[in-house]
Amino acid sequence: MNYAVKRKLVKFKWLVPNAASALLPMNDEIVLESNPDMSCNTYALYQFFLKKGLNSKYKLTWIVDDPEQFKDIKIKNVSFIARNPSNPVDKMKLYVRINRAKAAIACNRPFSRLNAAKGQLNIYLDHGSQLKNMKVGERRCTLDCGYLISQSSFFVPYHVDQYTVTEDQVVCTGLPRNDELYVHNDSLPRLIDDADRFKKVILWAPTFRQHADGKRVDTENRFPLGLPLLTGLEDAERLDAFLQEHQMLIIIKPHPVQDLSYLKKIDLQNIRTIYNPDLAKAGIQLNELMEQTDAMITDYSSIYYDYMLLDKPIALTTDDLDNYQSDKGFVFDNVYDIIKGEHLKSTDELLAFLTDVCEGKDRMLAERTAVKEKINDFLDGNSSRRVYDFIMTKLK
């Protein structure tokens, strides 16, 4: 079926229920969403809401997978409801509740304006700025939001190129989650109980290549252990021996939507793998963890933009860049103009990067700084405040 026709049919589907729900008053309620639940940009903004006492005027309602997981959170006017209730009656109640909320804020699964009140403030915070191509052929990724929050004016043309939004829908405030990079925490021991015995802690955060739902494969390239660079267990053991010698720790953090069946368990002394449930159990946000590390290894993930704000060494595994370029592609004509860090294509180059980290060397700092200043409008840790101010202006 033609895409435009399909969109019209979806819009027509909601005409009657939207008209019926419009007979009900809109509520002083803000519905919130993220993936994982209570994380990323929405969570950082929610924390600022609480700081400003917004929950005294508005109900703050999280749409989550399992409300039972949050039953111990007792905060005034904060509640949790299931994203996918099985009961048809509960599904209708969820629709009405979202439809009649004065604001809907998401950073992963956008709340569609097609099944919401016309007067609702609908904001999509996204979960990272553009690096990878998101279009299918020439068709842009559908985004039915009212406003899209952007890291900076630099990314506006890429938002418009990749999403079904216009320039006047994009609001440049910076990303709320990056405020956490400007605050020092000592929460790492809650995640790694022997963290104090390591002189250096490195975060390894690869992007996903195969989506957990099986519907999206960004590249057909496969790695023996599920990680770039490592060609087998021998490479992993060699890396671990180096880390032990230099009292370093690598924390591997898979992407939340990566198909984990591709990731082989690496049970080594100085290489630890953590998952989203581990972060949730320790009560740590990913950007909070990033601030407490000494360097990062990534590839084509937008986490690169976040970590750049810390002015700490970054290495980028590019051993499958050619395959990724042909299979998925990037939004930039020359991605090397943007990804400025040590480019790694072998275990030997990885060990050389780690040696530099040990010795306090950051060879690409000047080039990264130039890119950082180019792609950011704000370097102050006040993005949540700017988003909050925008929301308050619109709600008034």
Layout of helices and strands, plus pairs?
Elements: H1 3-13, H2 15-21, E1 27-33, H3 40-51, E2 59-64, E3 78-82, H4 88-100, E4 101-106, E5 121-124, E6 147-150, H5 156-162, E7 170-172, H6 188-191, E8 200-204, H7 233-245, E9 248-252, E10 271-273, H8 276-282, H9 286-291, E11 295-298, H10 303-308, E12 314-317, H11 321-327, E13 342-344, H12 347-358, H13 365-375, H14 383-395
Parallel strand pairs: 1-2, 1-4, 2-3, 4-5, 5-6, 6-7, 8-9, 8-11, 9-10, 11-12, 12-13
Describe this structure in words.
The structure is a single chain. The chain has 2 domains: 9-174 and 381-395, Rossmann fold; 184-375, Rossmann fold. The protein has helices at 3-13, 15-21, 40-51, 88-100, 156-162, 188-191, 233-245, 276-282, 286-291, 303-308, 321-327, 347-358, 365-375, 383-395, and strands at residues 27-33, 59-64, 78-82, 101-106, 121-124, 147-150, 170-172, 200-204, 248-252, 271-273, 295-298, 314-317, 342-344. Strands 3-2-1-4-5-6-7 form a 7-stranded parallel sheet, with helices on both faces. Strands 10-9-8-11-12-13 form a 6-stranded parallel sheet. The two termini are 42 Å apart. By secondary structure, the protein is an alpha/beta fold.
Quick take:
With 396 residues, the protein is an alpha/beta fold. The protein contains 14 helices and 13 strands. The two termini are 42 Å apart.
